[in-house]
Task: inverse folding
């Protein structure tokens, strides 16, 4: 039994160590210009929160949610900004940067000559992307607590949820990146991302849409992410958070699986 | 493992890309401590073979064992003991020279402290210590190549794979690389390299295979190959005029073999000076005469009917 289990365990520890080395590489590559990028990723959701959540919110007034709870418009919008900034942060790292490293810098052609395997590269890059995404989420949650849009206890629960959201979109982004042919494809992705951002129950409850459109919206990953995070920061929603959680975990697993399969195909020629 | 067992053993090894067969059933055995070469023109299947040995390209057929293991199943375990210097540099442009080595060492699970020490040693070995904190991009081709070689040594590998280690380098840079590779060999590291330079193969390889069109056309030490497939000396003659062809027919009886190239005629003879005298006796007056010893270039020409570098 020990002889059977031990090598497996060592495999897992070796694999996670190698994934960590991939993430570590990005720490070494950190440049001052990169910090500017990091800051801009944090500012963006804040601008939306202030301009629309607070600004437009003054015109809209309070909202009555489907469970009967009444919340300010800013409190309604804030969790959506949190979820979409987790998406944006994860996408930035796993689509644009990942694609550049794979296709133009040929970075992974060097990495695969070491014991590191494509799956471990994917995991390492994803972990790195999540460090960045989590930093955004944490900072944004602090702002939400300070603005009294949620409580500190709820924010503490919302943080791991936002991290999961980041992981899921990171895996999606990485999968997309393995199908990208050139930088032009990123325009399409940016448009798709913006549509998701606008229509995932971010600014308007999904119930406001016609039934068919509403169903469509409710199966998108960002809607599930917003729904999960909003359920935590605002409350209500009952057991449906389990559905969101299962959905995000499933997409994460599928994304990682496809991304590492695709990377193996592209790298092990 | 006994020393008699080859470190790398290929039997009927095949690599196909779609309908194209890049490597066509080759048999190779590389022994511990030797410098083994794959010699051939571009497209001969050298790099494809190297990638399979490096466990980054699954074989399409045949058998391949490296360090007694299966490259598909035991890839990470094998790669942990290999050093790879690929044909095109895959250095990390976002890191400095030193960081490139330290980061690469981390991929092998080498502790950071050890990695730093080893990076310093290796930079010294390839004479790049002064550029340790420079970015990779401004380095010359020769420096990048040396850095790639240093990177290949960061895990203290038992086998170092070098795919055209000096292609594109100026003569001075080439000699520096050769010197370092020779030192590695002295330390007992097994070297496997590909090249389309004859002098490189003659300088570095104990044994080599000549590849052409995905197949092995000859195998042996440089000396034995030259003995088997060429004469002791070669006379190179260049005649004035559009074509060398008309002169070749007159030289038929002079050597063991006559090769006509677009710009010169090669006479394969045991004694070069005697042959030159005979040419003059025939009343022929080439504008240029060169007597030299046979080399691997001549072996390749004999085996394939083509020159190596076109």
Result:
């Amino acid at each position: 039994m020990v002889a059977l289990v031990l090598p497996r365990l060592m495999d897992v520890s070796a694999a996670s160590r190698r994934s960590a080395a991939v993430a570590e590489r990005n720490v070494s590559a950190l440049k001052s210009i990169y910090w500017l990028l990091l800051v801009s990723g944090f500012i963006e959701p804040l601008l939306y929160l202030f301009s629309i959540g607070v600004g437009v919110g003054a015109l809209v007034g309070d909202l009555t949610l489907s469970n009967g709870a009444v919340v300010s418009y800013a409190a309604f919008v804030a969790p959506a900004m949190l979820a979409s900034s987790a998406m944006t942060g994860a996408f930035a790292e796993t689509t644009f940067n990942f694609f550049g490293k794979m296709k133009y810098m040929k970075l992974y052609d060097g990495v695969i000559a070491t014991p590191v395997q494509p799956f471990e590269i994917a995991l390492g890059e994803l972990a790195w992307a999540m460090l960045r995404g989590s930093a955004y989420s944490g900072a944004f949650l602090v702002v939400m607590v300070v603005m009294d849009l949620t409580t500190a206890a709820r924010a503490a629960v919302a943080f791991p949820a936002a991290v999961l959201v980041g992981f899921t979109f990171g895996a999606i982004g990485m999968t997309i990146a393995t199908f990208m042919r050139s930088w032009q494809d990123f325009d399409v992705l940016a448009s798709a991302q913006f549509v998701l951002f606008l229509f995932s129950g971010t600014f308007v409850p999904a119930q406001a849409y016609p039934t068919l459109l509403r169903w469509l919206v409710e199966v998108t990953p960002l809607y599930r992410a917003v729904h999960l995070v909003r359920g935590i920061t605002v409350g209500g929603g009952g057991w449906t958070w389990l559905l969101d959680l299962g959905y995000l975990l499933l997409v994460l697993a599928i994304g990682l699986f496809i991304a590492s399969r695709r990377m193996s195909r592209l790298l092990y020629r | 493992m006994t020393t008699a067992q080859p470190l790398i053993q290929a039997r009927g090894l095949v690599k196909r890309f779609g309908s194209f067969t890049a490597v066509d059933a080759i048999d190779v055995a590389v022994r511990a401590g030797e410098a083994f070469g794959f010699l051939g023109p571009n497209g001969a299947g050298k790099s494809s073979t190297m990638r399979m040995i490096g466990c980054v390209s699954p074989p399409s057929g045949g058998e391949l064992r490296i360090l007694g293991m299966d490259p598909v199943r035991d890839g990470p375990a094998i790669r942990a003991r290999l050093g790879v210097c690929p044909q095109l540099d895959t250095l990390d442009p976002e890191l400095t020279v030193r960081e490139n080595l330290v980061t690469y060492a981390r991929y092998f699970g080498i502790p950071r402290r050890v990695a730093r020490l080893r990076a310093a040693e290796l930079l010294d070995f390839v004479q790049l210590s002064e550029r340790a904190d420079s970015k990779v991009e401004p380095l010359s081709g020769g420096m990048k190549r040396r850095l790639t070689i240093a990177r290949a040594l960061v895990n203290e590998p038992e086998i170092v794979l070098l795919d055209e280690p000096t292609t594109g380098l100026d003569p001075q840079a080439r000699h520096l690389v050769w010197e370092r590779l020779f030192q590695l060999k002295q330390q007992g590291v097994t070297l496997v390299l590909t090249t389309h330079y004859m002098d490189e193969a003659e300088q570095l390889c104990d044994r080599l295979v000549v590849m052409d069109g995905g197949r092995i056309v000859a195998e042996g030490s440089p000396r034995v190959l030259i003995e088997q497939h060429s004469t002791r000396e070669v006379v190179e003659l260049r005649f004035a005029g559009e074509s060398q062809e008309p002169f070749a027919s007159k030289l038929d009886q002079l050597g063991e073999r006559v090769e006509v190239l677009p710009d010169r005629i090669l006479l394969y003879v045991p004694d070069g000076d005697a042959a030159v005298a005979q040419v003059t006796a025939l009343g022929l007056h080439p504008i240029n005469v060169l007597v030299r010893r046979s080399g691997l270039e001549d072996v390749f020409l004999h085996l394939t009917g083509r020159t190596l570098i076109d």
Chain B touches chain A at residues 17, 51, 54, 56-58, 75-77, 79-80, 82, 84, 86, 88, 90-95, 99, 102-104, 106-109, 151, 155 (CB under 8 Å).
